[in-house]
Write a structure and sequence with these properties.
The protein is mostly helical and about 100 residues long. It contains three helices and no strands. Keywords: Membrane, Transmembrane, Transmembrane helix.
């Protein structure tokens, strides 16, 4: 038991090596040409997707505006038709003088 304590104290008293500050190898830190190509590919893909999305949103807005105009014209035509039909009915019911 005594020998185990001495071994434990000896192991605890030995100095631990301190890491020396060194600069990392630039080849292992930088992404290199393949990393640059991947980032460029992702950037171009995002730009194209945003451009397509904006085009689709614009197209949807134009279609909605056209549908609103057509609905308004249809309602106006129905209103004119209803008033002319109502007037004809009234005139037919009125006795002729």
């Amino acid at each position: 038991m005594h020998d185990a304590l001495i071994a434990l104290i000896a192991a605890a008293s030995t100095a631990t090596p301190t890491p020396t500050p060194s600069t990392p190898d630039p080849a292992t830190v930088t992404p290199g040409p393949w990393g640059f190509a991947a980032i460029v590919f992702i950037a171009v893909a995002v730009i194209l997707l945003v451009w397509d999305m904006m085009r689709r949103i614009r197209r949807g807005r134009v279609r909605a505006d056209i549908e609103e105009q057509l609905d308004a014209e249809e309602q106006a035509a129905r209103a004119v038709e209803a008033t002319s039909t109502d007037d004809e009915d009234i005139d037919r019911e009125r006795p002729q003088a």
